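Subject: Protein record for review, amino acid sequence with backbone structure tokens
Why sent: The fold of this protein is of interest and is recorded here as tokens.
Notation: Tokens come from a learned vocabulary of local backbone shapes, not from coordinates.
Attached in line: The record itself begins immediately under this heading.
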Amino acid sequence: MLQPVKEKIILGIDPGTNLMGYGVIKVVGTKASMLAMGVIDLRKYEDSYLKLGRIFERVRGIIDSYLPDELAIEAPFFGKNVQTMLKLGRAQGVAMAAAMSRQVPITEYAPTKIKMAITGNGSAGKEQVADMLRRMLHIDKEEMPHFLDATDALGAAYCHYLQMGRPTVDKGCSSWKEFMAKNPERVKK
């Protein structure tokens, strides 16, 4: 069960070196709605360092526009070749540095975790994720982006929203007595 939140803005990022997706959701109470989604198009830059600089500038601009409380970022998928992993890791790191420069807390999610949270299937396709997000966030078909990097980023933000308010179990407790002592606010009297 999600815990009600007064208001929270979550920025989701899908790192990329040609197209970097972003999605912004607003949470009020236990309801989430989309504020924005799109891509940072880096295809016109040939120099990889110019791309990284542009990522930093654009992510900071998005942060300054929407003032997110938290950033949810997709972790690079480890099945690709080493050069691709290095490029994606750099893009992800620069986006994270932009968030840190604005004191925005960061949570990283594996692609399979995001897909599982949105569709119930960790190996779902990008199209399935996009369609589920469209339905859950009540987005008109005409508003859906051409590039699925944007919906992947929105998926990271929505996955983070779904994780909110879920209590974590303290695995350090060896008995109920110890658990109750460490968590008095969770014990009914």
